[in-house]
């Protein structure tokens, strides 16, 4: 198995100067990152319109490199994606924009629409500003494109008062987790949240990487089949849990943060962005809820598995302010930038040197940065688009109906066979 281990490291303050000075001019690792001598405004586009206050806060910090962002936010992701693609057909190439990793980033790279950032990553890696494994999400044909806007660690949120009331401990094995679920079921409490849209795939990724991380990774490259025994074992456990009522009705309209905070569900497997959603309804970290790394389904899988979701900041190739955008991208890796960003968002940072005030996120970050923890890509970004598209349909149906997983797995393998055959 290809291990993508997350490591923590100390860093001297001089790293900021080193990383913002890096330039790709001589190595072919990207265009030159040029810090402007006077304040420069670069156009920034994103599908995260609600994040405008956070970026306004960042403008107060980025004056240290004489760069500020002019924010344009979209609330409709489909309209946003169309806008970005159409912008490249005009002379108004976007300076800086948020995008998606995986196949959608590769599509822009293959059309030479985005600036290479290999030298920025080399410098950031050498200064221990990023954990190992994160770079995989930004690599295409051996080069890097974009820098990480954010990361989210996928972990299990749980209602602490419910655990305390029923004498439950944070589980360290799958058997312990299931025993907790049985106690909750007996008390009339639904153990888990689950959705049949948007995040319909997440329990598949959790169960499969905990059963066989090698198989989870091999599915991403066509070296494993959806009908392999390891996949079938994980899917059957998923089906058993659905059929036995371990999950809330996936069609429920109540927000997951409300379901967890009110105790309608005891646990929710979500990314660390969920912390902000809980805070928005007044839930207190460490008091109302806790977070733990889910145990592996297979006890023979000894290393903890952690899905890292990440989205990129991307520089448009040939944009009017490309050199300044690359300077901003380089600065974005720094302790200065990431401390400010973590504070503005109330979330974790990819930079292991950033202090986290939230007690539960801090403990999770320590667990993530344990050398034994293996980083995995999220299923959505790791899976070729035609296969993922079909999975949204069959996983959504399975989450709703449960039952025998074999028809679902066979359908996915048929799509996978066609896709990988086309790749030669």
TrEMBL record:
This is ABC transporter substrate-binding protein. Keywords: Signal, Transport. PANTHER family: ARABINOSE-BINDING PROTEIN-RELATED, BLR3389 PROTEIN. Transmembrane segments: none annotated. SUPFAM superfamilies: Periplasmic binding protein-like II. Residues 1-17 form the signal peptide. The keyword S-adenosyl-L-methionine does not apply. Belongs to the bacterial solute-binding protein 1 family. One of its GO terms (biological process) is transmembrane transport. It comes from the Bacteria.
């Amino acid at each position: 198995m290809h291990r993508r281990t997350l490591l923590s490291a100390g860093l001297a303050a001089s790293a900021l100067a080193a990383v913002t000075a890096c330039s790709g001019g001589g190595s072919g690792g990207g265009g030159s990152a040029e810090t402007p001598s006077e304040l420069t405004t670069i156009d920034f586009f994103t599908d995260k319109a609600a994040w405008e206050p956070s970026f306004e806060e960042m403008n107060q910090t980025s004056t240290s490199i004489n760069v500020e962002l002019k924010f344009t936010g979209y609330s409709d992701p489909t309209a946003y994606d169309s806008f970005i693609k159409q912008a490249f057909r005009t002379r108004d190439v976007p300076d800086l924009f948020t995008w998606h990793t995986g196949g959608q980033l590769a599509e822009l790279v293959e059309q030479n629409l985005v600036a290479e950032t290999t030298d920025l990553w080399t410098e950031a890696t050498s200064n221990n500003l990023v954990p190992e494994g994160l770079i995989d999400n930004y690599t295409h044909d051996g080069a890097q494109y974009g820098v990480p806007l954010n990361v989210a660690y996928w972990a299990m949120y749980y209602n602490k008062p419910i655990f305390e009331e029923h004498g439950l401990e944070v589980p360290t094995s799958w058997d312990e987790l299931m025993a907790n679920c049985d106690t909750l079921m007996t008390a009339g409490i639904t153990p888990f949240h689950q959705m049949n849209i948007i995040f319909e795939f997440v329990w598949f990724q959790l169960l499969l990487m905990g059963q066989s991380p090698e198989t989870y990774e091999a599915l991403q490259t066509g070296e494993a089949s959806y009908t392999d025994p390891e996949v079938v074992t994980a899917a059957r456990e998923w089906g058993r849990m659905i059929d036995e009522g371990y999950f809330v009705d996936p069609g429920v309209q109540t927000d997951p943060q409300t379901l967890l905070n009110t105790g309608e569900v005891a646990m929710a497997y979500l990314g660390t962005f969920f912390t902000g959603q809980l805070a928005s309804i007044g839930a207190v970290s460490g008091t109302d809820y806790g977070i733990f790394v889910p145990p592996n389904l297979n006890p023979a899988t000894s290393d903890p598995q952690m899905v890292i979701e990440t989205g990129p900041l991307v520089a448009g190739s040939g944009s009017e302010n490309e050199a300044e955008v690359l300077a901003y991208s380089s600065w974005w890796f720094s302790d200065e930038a990431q401390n400010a960003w973590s504070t503005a968002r109330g979330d974790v940072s990819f930079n292991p040197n950033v202090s986290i005030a939230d007690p539960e996120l801090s403990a999770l970050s320590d667990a993530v940065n344990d050398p034994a923890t293996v980083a995995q890509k999220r299923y959505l970004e790791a899976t070729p688009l035609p296969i993922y598209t079909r999975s949204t349909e069959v996983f959504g149906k399975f989450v709703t109906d449960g039952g025998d997983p074999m028809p679902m797995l066979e359908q996915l393998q048929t799509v996978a066979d066609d896709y990988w055959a086309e790749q030669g």
